[in-house]
Structures are given as structure tokens and as C-alpha cells.
Amino acid sequence: MKIYTYPDQVLKTPAEPITEIDEDLQHLIDWMIETMYAAPGIGLAANQVGVLKRVIVFDRQPREKGRDPAVLINPEIVLGESQIKWEEACLSVPDFSAEVVRKAQVKVKGVDRHGNPLDIEAEDLLAVCLQHEVDHLNGTLFIDHISGLKRALYKKKLKKMLKQQEEKG
Ligand code: GNR
Ligand code: NI
Question: Would the pTM count as exceeding 0.90?
Fold first, then answer.
């Protein structure tokens, strides 16, 4: 699946709650998992593939080499503790990374692809990833958490990159 990138409007639009777990959704989930690993990434939100539905996929062991994919439908962060600063990147924000302050430990509630309740407790990288993905569903990018100056610098860099691509054809 194509991954939409900043400043596409779909990344700024809050996604809608899922009301029905049907075959279309199963296919979407499979495609999202494939797209995430192909990228490669440790998480992916439906907004990033142009679908405004509240579903995220992620790897439960983001530091390991093997695949351990998981899905959360209608995820909600119900608990967050302590703070952590992490250098974040995003498949929808090419060629940029920046430190963002997040909760170091979170509990995220949702349902799995079969509609069964699923609670995930996570810390450090996985906790950061889950907050980053739930942000996507709310139309927020990690660059919305950095200083206006840093964001302005990124926008300038992006403009330049897009212009160079245009010139190359
Ligand atoms: O692959 C990803 N790595 C990452 C690293 C630090 C903080 C967040 C992330 S999420 C990112 C994939 C992505 O853009 N998900 O929305
Ligand atoms: Ni992202």
C-alpha cells in the first residue's frame, strides 16, 4: 500500500471508530502489516495508508529481528506514567527525526482483529510507538510535538527536496 506523507490532508484528519469487524477490515489489517514490514517500520496507523479508520498495527518486539505483529482496533491510551525523551521518525515524515517527550509507560486498551478485548502494557520504544500511532488516528504527527522553529526548518528542507525531485522529473 502507498504510504501517504506530510503534508497530505489524510494525516491531519481524525480517523473514525470501527463499528464492524468484517472481511474488508481483515484485508486492510493484512495489508497494513505487510506495508509496515516492507517499509520497514515498527508501527503503522490506517491514516498513513489513506484509510480514516481507527486501526493500528505494530510489532510487539520492535527491537528484535523476527516478526511479532499485533493489531489494535479503536485503541485508547488509558494510563500513562513517567516521561521519556525519544528520537522519533515517521514513515509519513520522510528524511527527518527529532526528540519528542512521551510517557515512558502506557496501557492501551482496544480490541483485536477478532473483536476480543486486548490490553497492551508497554514501556520505552513500544510505549513511544503506541502513542505515536494513536496520535496518527487523531490527526497528529510527531512534528506537532516539536518546537515551531524545528518544524519550520523541516518544512523548508521538504520544500527543497520536492523542488529537486521536480527538476529531476
Ligand atoms: O518505524 C517507526 N519507527 C519509530 C521510531 C521512533 C518513534 C516512532 C516510530 S514509529 C515509525 C513508523 C511510523 O511512522 N508509524 O506511524
Ligand atoms: Ni508515524
Answer: yes
